[in-house]
């Protein structure tokens, strides 16, 4: 199997005996003699060459920029229950993930049961998420109170992270109608959040959990994706954003989005963020001990 990128070759998901995920870019994915074939040009992820992929033992193929896929390849992937997602470079965008039917519904059923029990299971999962983020189990059992505590904590985290990177900070400002009107730090936070949400979308798709069934976020069609992304906001999203804002002052000709995406992609690879997200999703629905 091709060595994966982003630490994905070490990801383990409940997909029978499969090995995990593989990242491909700058090539054509097709079928030859009943097997998946990827003809790649040279790039940062892999050397130029003609590769055969063991589709029966891969759970998810991440198809990066500069790639095409044939109808025969889609048919073969569907037949073997192998997922395919079109992603940005280094997985900082998730453009589409076809809803192929997984061969194990365990996590999705656990998620649905917990979500359906609004007063018990749903709150318990939300409290576990807050405990992971805040470093302690809070006694409160009102989701509004928990959101308020987390919001106050985030205001302080913004200030501390900005100071750590030496970036001026006047508070979180975001105008949806004109996002580019914000200062560099706020723009970078928006771009970093999009990148980490893409990684979370890949993790949710890979575990066959339900993106609409969130425990802290409620209204978005990607509520569970946002829940998972927020678990990494303090440790990944904000450091990437403020580092990007700092670098942008030294590179005025380079768009802040490009700087942020490059930094986010690098940390996804080095820190194995997507496998960590997959592990978090699996741990989220384990019984409390």
TrEMBL record:
<keyword id="KW-0255">Endonuclease</keyword>
<dbReference type="InterPro" id="IPR019851">
    <property type="entry name" value="CRISPR-assoc_Cas1_ECOLI"/>
</dbReference>
<dbReference type="Pfam" id="PF01867">
    <property type="entry name" value="Cas_Cas1"/>
</dbReference>
<keyword id="KW-0378">Hydrolase</keyword>
<dbReference type="GO" id="GO:0046872">
    <property type="term" value="F:metal ion binding"/>
</dbReference>
<dbReference type="InterPro" id="IPR002729">
    <property type="entry name" value="CRISPR-assoc_Cas1"/>
</dbReference>
<keyword id="KW-0238">DNA-binding</keyword>
<keyword id="KW-0540">Nuclease</keyword>
<comment type="subunit">
    <text>Homodimer, forms a heterotetramer with a Cas2 homodimer.</text>
</comment>
<dbReference type="GO" id="GO:0043571">
    <property type="term" value="P:maintenance of CRISPR repeat elements"/>
</dbReference>
<dbReference type="GO" id="GO:0004520">
    <property type="term" value="F:DNA endonuclease activity"/>
</dbReference>
<dbReference type="GO" id="GO:0051607">
    <property type="term" value="P:defense response to virus"/>
</dbReference>
<feature type="binding site">
    <location>
        <position position="230"/>
    </location>
    <ligand>
        <name>Mn(2+)</name>
    </ligand>
</feature>
<dbReference type="InterPro" id="IPR042206">
    <property type="entry name" value="CRISPR-assoc_Cas1_C"/>
</dbReference>
<keyword id="KW-0479">Metal-binding</keyword>
<keyword id="KW-0460">Magnesium</keyword>
<dbReference type="InterPro" id="IPR050646">
    <property type="entry name" value="Cas1"/>
</dbReference>
<comment type="function">
    <text>CRISPR (clustered regularly interspaced short palindromic repeat), is an adaptive immune system that provides protection against mobile genetic elements (viruses, transposable elements and conjugative plasmids). CRISPR clusters contain spacers, sequences complementary to antecedent mobile elements, and target invading nucleic acids. CRISPR clusters are transcribed and processed into CRISPR RNA (crRNA). Acts as a dsDNA endonuclease. Involved in the integration of spacer DNA into the CRISPR cassette.</text>
</comment>
<dbReference type="GO" id="GO:0016787">
    <property type="term" value="F:hydrolase activity"/>
</dbReference>
<dbReference type="GO" id="GO:0003677">
    <property type="term" value="F:DNA binding"/>
</dbReference>
<keyword id="KW-0051">Antiviral defense</keyword>
<keyword id="KW-0464">Manganese</keyword>
<dbReference type="InterPro" id="IPR042211">
    <property type="entry name" value="CRISPR-assoc_Cas1_N"/>
</dbReference>
<protein>
    <recommendedName>
        <fullName>CRISPR-associated endonuclease Cas1</fullName>
        <ecNumber>3.1.-.-</ecNumber>
    </recommendedName>
</protein>
<comment type="similarity">
    <text>Belongs to the CRISPR-associated endonuclease Cas1 family.</text>
</comment>
<feature type="binding site">
    <location>
        <position position="150"/>
    </location>
    <ligand>
        <name>Mn(2+)</name>
    </ligand>
</feature>
<feature type="binding site">
    <location>
        <position position="217"/>
    </location>
    <ligand>
        <name>Mn(2+)</name>
    </ligand>
</feature>
């Amino acid at each position: 199997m091709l060595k994966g990128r982003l630490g994905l070759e070490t990801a383990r998901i409940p997909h029978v005996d499969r090995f995990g995920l593989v990242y491909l870019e700058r090539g054509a994915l097709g079928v030859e003699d009943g097997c998946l074939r990827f003809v790649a040009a040279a790039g940062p992820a892999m050397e130029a060459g003609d590769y055969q992929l063991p589709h029966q033992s891969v759970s998810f193929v991440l198809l990066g920029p500069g790639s095409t896929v044939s109808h025969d390849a889609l048919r073969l992937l569907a037949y073997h229950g192998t997922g395919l997602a079109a992603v940005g470079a280094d997985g900082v965008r998730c453009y589409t993930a076809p809803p192929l039917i997984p061969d194990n519904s365990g996590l999705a059923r656990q998620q649905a049961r917990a979500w359906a029990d609004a007063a018990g299971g749903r709150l318990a999962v939300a409290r576990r998420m807050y405990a992971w983020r805040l470093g302690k189990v809070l006694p409160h059992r009102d989701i509004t109170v928990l959101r308020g505590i987390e919001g106050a904590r985030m205001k302080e985290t913004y200030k501390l992270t900005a100071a750590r990177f030496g970036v001026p900070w006047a508070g979180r400002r975001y105008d949806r109608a004109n996002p580019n009107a914000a200062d560099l730090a706020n723009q970078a936070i928006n771009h970093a959040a999009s990148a980490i949400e893409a990684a979370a979308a890949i993790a949710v798709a890979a575990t066959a959990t339900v993106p609409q069934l969130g425990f802290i976020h409620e209204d978005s069609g990607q509520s569970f994706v946002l829940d998972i992304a927020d678990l990494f906001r303090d440790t990944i999203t904000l450091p990437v954003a403020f580092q990007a804002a700092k670098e942008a002052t030294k590179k005025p000709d380079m768009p802040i989005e490009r700087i942020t995406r490059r930094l986010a992609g690098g940390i996804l690879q080095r820190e194995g963020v997507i496998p960590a997200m997959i592990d978090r999703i699996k741990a989220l629905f384990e019984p409390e001990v």
